[in-house]
Amino acid sequence: MKKILIVLILTISSLSFSQEGKFKLVLDAGHGGKDPGANKNGCVEKEIALDVVLQIGELLKNYSDFDVKYTRTTDVFIPLRDRAKIANDFGANLFVSIHCNSSVSPNPSGSMTLVMGLSRSNMNFEIAKTENAVIFQEDDYKKNYKGFDPNNPSTQIGLKILQEETLLQSIEFASEIQNQFKNTLTRKDLGMHQQPLWVLDATVMPGVLIELGFLSNYKESKYLNSKEGRQNFAQVIALAILKYKNQLLGTETPLFEPKVLTPIIIEETKPEIVPIVDTVKTIPLDVQPQVDDQKKYRVQIGYSTTKLDLVPANFKGLLNVTMKQEGNAYKYFYGNASSAEECKKLLAEAKTKGFNTAFMVEDKE
Ligand SMILES: [Zn+2]
């Protein structure tokens, strides 16, 4: 989420539907181009946001009563004001912006949905600050944002008092999204929040900003980066949009049953016990040096609380993977070598495949 922007705006006016009676939805993939957003654990916010947004659009494209517009469909930088303009010019009924969160600590996890509003809580202001900070990456930001300083809440001159009704609609929508995350996807629920975001004068539609999860959290970042995880999020957000529209307009657009998939997440381990294989041993002279042909070495590539099938597809193509259960977790090893030298080659191979934190272990069994 950092350095990104969002443009959410809430709305006031009554919903104006096009003559064809279509529900106009603007899908906004956060960040893009020179602004990658959060970038942690090899997972990039702008890429995840775009993929999820495009998948939501694909799902809703099947509905003839929806008219979907994207702020971007490729990896390009879109200034905040342009995102708002796209929504305004389109006459959108709903604005949905997709982001990923990030923290300096690897611990926080969970999904939250932000509704534009006038909140002064520090936590929300911190998020607003980072999401609004993208303004500084735009040329002429001083002119274009009329002195708005994302770092100073007192200068948020663009904020409007929202009509209660519009705010309630956005809150209702945000609650449904969180409900889907929690109950359908069993993601950690960080709830619905209000936050002050840059609001352009003329923008008048309900809007939410969804923080899918934390890229700074290893496990969550892998979920967000997985094909299955992204597909899961896209499905339930599309479903929440359908429900919101039906409830708001009293329509009966058919819903669909989301197919929740479980991504395979291999957590790479931190080195615990790294055998010192190059140490010169002092052997007493009266002891016959013995060939240590009993030792076996393996490369530990990761662990998971999920028991994985030992097929190459689950381990980035590596063959000959073995597993050992320890408590509730499973350790995964690559190869089987009778010398440390031989094992070093296996280690290099595992790293080439992407297991960057793999390490050698002595097989004591
Ligand atoms: Zn973001």
TrEMBL record:
Ranges for domain MurNAc-LAA: 84-242
Catalytic reaction equation(s): Hydrolyzes the link between N-acetylmuramoyl residues and L-amino acid residues in certain cell-wall glycopeptides
Coiled coil: none
Any one GO molecular-function label of the UniProt entry: N-acetylmuramoyl-L-alanine amidase activity
Signal sequence bounds: 1-18
SMART domains: Ami_3
Gene3D superfamilies: Zn-dependent exopeptidases (3.40.630.40)
CDD domains recorded: MurNAc-LAA
EC id: 3.5.1.28
Identification of the protein by name: N-acetylmuramoyl-L-alanine amidase
Organism: Flavobacterium nakdongensis
